[in-house]
TrEMBL record:
It comes from Amycolatopsis bartoniae. It comes from the Bacteria. It is found in: Cell membrane. This is MFS transporter. Keywords: Membrane, Transmembrane, Transmembrane helix, Transport. GO terms for cellular component: plasma membrane. One of its GO terms (molecular function) is transmembrane transporter activity.
Amino acid sequence: MTLSSENPAYRSAVRKFFRRMLPLVVFMLVINQMDRTNVGFVQTHLKTDLGIGAAAFGLGAGLFFVGYAIFEVPSNMLLERFGARVWLTRIMITWGVVVAATAFTNNATTFYILRLLLGVTEAGFFPGVIYYFTKWLPNAERGRATAIFLGGSASAYIVTGPISGALLEMHGVGGIAGWKWMFLLEGGASVVIGIVAGFFLVSRVRDAKWLTDEEKSALSAAVERDEAVRDDKKTAHVPRWKLVANPQVLLLCWLFFAMSLTGYAITFWLPSIVKKIPGTSDFTVGLLSAIPWICAIIAMYTLAWYTDRTGRRRPWVAVGLVLGAVGTFLATVGPPWFALVALCLGATGFKCAASAFWPLAQHSLDLKIAAAGIALINSLGNLGGFVGPTLVGAVEQSTGSTAGGLYVLSIVSVLAAGTVFLVRARYMPARSRITSPVVQ
């Protein structure tokens, strides 16, 4: 008799993973996103102290994604070889060093170099965790895990504003500028947390001392059954590079590119938009900038709960992209307070699209290219993080407004929504119908 996925040992193992490993990688992502996007809060300071204008700032903010894209696939392949504990903590320690070094920026050139290096050192973290989920959880659990993980990204935007704003208020302490304190302390924290995480992160199910033998067997069997569904026997003799170059993989790259294009434009330029609200300070800008991401977290978790039970994710990727486009467009047609409200809709749309997208992408990829495919989607898709901020910065430099750039990003998001249904997803049954491979 085949036991259901409510097998006590299986459910217990999943709960333990959610309690022990998931909070750790979420916390690492919070620090990761804070270190990646904190530069958005020092735009005016860099212009005042170093003469870095809007176009140069947009280019520097976006160069991160160039280094990220180049080293993403090799980094994920090395994670597959060395394991998550070694590789994810290595990534965190080295990116922390680069963030701290950004405090010593003295002109546009060093700003460009350090942002590029940040992308190089951070490459592989996000797709590494996404791949890590495939080794620990079957498809029916990954929607929630991915949403919670992405919630860490949105949570980072909530805490980055107040923390970075508070650190900027340290201006003059010890004769050091506030923006330098921000980079030094946030980068140093990443190094310390990366070292500590190395003692707790567990790479494989069989290495988890906090699982019983029965729990290890049940969870491993569920993961193996999920892998069997994704292992296409017809491609057994097809070279990996041909599988990675499959049009379906490129379609997934395009979809994530569209999400990143506008998502990161909102991330980097939201503080400058909020700062136009009369009477705001660095600290209040940070607090107000957190509001869109609070909305996004609530919506993401609700959607993940629904999609894990129905298995229907493609329609919600499209809905999220359209909502994001509408919010981005509306941010251009009213006063700063209205723009903030509109960007709440925009951030919610793009985060919901991403939380439905990643489980869809994971299950769509042939098992043989899971690590490389996830990394390629993330690396090429994240180039949108280069194009978006650079485009908006160039438009503001020439017109004095971000509106033109945001119009373009809205159009791209709508076009992407129309291509979502070209993704050929493997059948994903609802959790209530999934059976465990454990046979009694």
